[in-house]
From TrEMBL:
<feature type="signal peptide">
    <location>
        <begin position="1"/>
        <end position="22"/>
    </location>
</feature>
<dbReference type="GO" id="GO:0006508">
    <property type="term" value="P:proteolysis"/>
</dbReference>
<dbReference type="InterPro" id="IPR029058">
    <property type="entry name" value="AB_hydrolase_fold"/>
</dbReference>
<keyword id="KW-0378">Hydrolase</keyword>
<keyword id="KW-0325">Glycoprotein</keyword>
<protein>
    <recommendedName>
        <fullName>Thymus-specific serine protease</fullName>
    </recommendedName>
</protein>
<dbReference type="GO" id="GO:0072330">
    <property type="term" value="P:monocarboxylic acid biosynthetic process"/>
</dbReference>
<keyword id="KW-0732">Signal</keyword>
<dbReference type="GO" id="GO:0017000">
    <property type="term" value="P:antibiotic biosynthetic process"/>
</dbReference>
<dbReference type="Pfam" id="PF05577">
    <property type="entry name" value="Peptidase_S28"/>
</dbReference>
<keyword id="KW-0645">Protease</keyword>
<dbReference type="GO" id="GO:0008239">
    <property type="term" value="F:dipeptidyl-peptidase activity"/>
</dbReference>
<dbReference type="GO" id="GO:0070008">
    <property type="term" value="F:serine-type exopeptidase activity"/>
</dbReference>
<comment type="similarity">
    <text>Belongs to the peptidase S28 family.</text>
</comment>
<dbReference type="InterPro" id="IPR008758">
    <property type="entry name" value="Peptidase_S28"/>
</dbReference>
Amino acid sequence: MRYSVLAQVALALAGLSSTASAMGMGAIRRELRLAAEMGINPDHMLKRQSVPTQANQADSDNVVAKTVSLPIDHGDPSVGTYENRYWVNDEWYQQGGPVFVYDVGEATAEATAKQHLGNSTSFLVEMLEDFGAIGIAWEHRYYGESLPFNVSVDTPPEHFKYLTNKQALADIPFFAKNFTLDGHKEDLTPDAKPWVMVGGSYSGMRSAFTRDAYPDTIFAAYASSAPVEARVNMSMYFDQVYNGMVAKGYSNCTKDIKAGLEYIDDELSKNASAAAAIKKRFFGDGAEKNSNGDFTAALAGIFGFFQAYGVGGGDGGLGSFCEYLETDAATLQPAGPRGFAPYRGKKYVAERFASWPVFIDLVNFNYDTNCRQTDTTKPLECTLNPKSTDPDTISWTWQFCTEWGYYQSNNFGPHSLLSKFQTLEYQQYTCNRQFPDAVKKGLLPSTPQVEATNKQTGGWTIRPSNVYWSGGQFDPWRTLSPLATEDIAPQGVTFSTEIPKCGVETGEDRLFGYIMENAEHCFDLITGFGPGKISRGFFHEALKSWLPCFKAAGAVAGHRD
Ligand SMILES: *[C@@H]1O[C@H](CO)[C@@H](O)[C@H](O)[C@H]1NC(C)=O
Ligand SMILES: *[C@@H]1O[C@H](CO)[C@@H](O)[C@H](O)[C@H]1NC(C)=O
Ligand SMILES: *[C@@H]1O[C@H](CO)[C@@H](O)[C@H](O)[C@H]1NC(C)=O
Ligand SMILES: *[C@@H]1O[C@H](CO)[C@@H](O)[C@H](O)[C@H]1NC(C)=O
Ligand SMILES: *[C@@H]1O[C@H](CO)[C@@H](O)[C@H](O)[C@H]1NC(C)=O
Ligand SMILES: *[C@@H]1O[C@H](CO)[C@@H](O)[C@H](O)[C@H]1NC(C)=O
């Protein structure tokens, strides 16, 4: 049977249940990134239409899920084992070639695995072809069907004990040690073959961390848009959105968003009836039942497409929003550089914000709600930014609430883009609300344990050898990667595309990496994005120069059988 990968991805996107999309690499933004990688038109998702499938389907019939038995606790075999899924394609393999592993990260991996192992437009297929490599896609523990325990809102908090960075990092090395593939008699393990790990975002972090912690398993790595520094306060996320908007000529829009939110915040702070009125003005009846935090989290939905599409992204994109906000409804004249607020007032801007026609679809898409009953076959339901019921989102929420942080609160100050109710405390509240039993039993830390995480991983000062770092100029996640340039980041680091010698770590003041101009999150993994090819090219050249220095374990340690 021919497998339509895109149709499956579209289905997954359209059927997302409630998600904490305001938060980080949560389901919506994550899925949008995959959609961008696959060239899916985001308008189809917003309107919950099925994506038209191409007649000419890639042959991913041979890319079927396999499983490997892994210890739930790498430190204690008595806890038992679970089955972890992976996919392999050896279609491009040439004798002597390396093995590439793509960890899909915090999502169900099936559709992505098939796309990236089977579709010639994928960056991974490009690499497999170039290097005559075997390709493996890996599903991260606690996602998809790779479940030590079932994940739902009812999962006892004890069951999340093995969802830690440390446990998850040990999975691929354990698997690799014993890797075999039907039809291949030669030794394919890292003892005999260079294994190369590639990925973007959390998956890019995993590439770099695995190379760092398990250099005998992973010979080289490509880390795209990888925020390897754990940090609770990630308000810089919105500074980057601001920078990206200004660069695209939307500084008027940033000013009006700020002014509109000041008006909204004032209304929310006045009294109950003023607060209810502004909530209803945006999202209709039922919206008034939401707290100020949950309501203003929904307002941040205008930025939801930014990391995956910049100011593009079709009808739901930030550019469309700004065009609407900065155009006079009657005369169709643009606002000019200062925006509308200075002469029409904050109230005018807030009301224009509220009347953006796409907003209701966007919010219903984000939260699986039915605000304003846009779907007349279902009852009105308008609970904004609810607790998640989607298993992948629950697992990722556990991960950032315990280890990574990444709380994207308002960037208070002159460039502020969110409501004053979008605080770090609000973000912590959503963690506590998601895992009430864990709070009761003391299993959820009162704040993410980022110091411990960075101590364990090394954070953004790690410099494992044979690793290439790629980033986007306006990627909000670059702020916590080694390519960060903010005040809070290590200062005086030179980013260079000069290939370091094989196996040689650079000093902390130097990084083998590249920032793509005018790019956002993981744009180098979108083969249709021209400058991405330049970035991938640095890695291709580097890997070509490093591969000859790979030494099979047998060559050093004597004969293996
Ligand atoms: C492969 O990906 C491209 C875009 O990335 C898409 O247009 C095409 O339909 C895909 N093919 C399959 C079989 O999914
Ligand atoms: C998870 O749930 C499925 C069906 O809902 C069940 O068959 C399976 O045994 C459960 N697994 C665990 C580890 O509890
Ligand atoms: C490695 O593979 C062999 C053969 O398939 C199997 O018997 C053994 O249990 C595996 N070891 C581990 C640690 O998975
Ligand atoms: C969060 O970090 C920014 C710097 O990026 C800083 O300006 C701000 O004061 C911090 N917020 C809190 C609440 O600490
Ligand atoms: C709430 O505030 C508005 C605006 O200041 C005011 O007009 C209204 O009377 C207030 N309502 C109540 C119930 O206090
Ligand atoms: C302001 O907004 C409009 C959108 O209507 C845009 O075309 C224009 O370039 C923006 N910037 C300035 C400086 O006017």
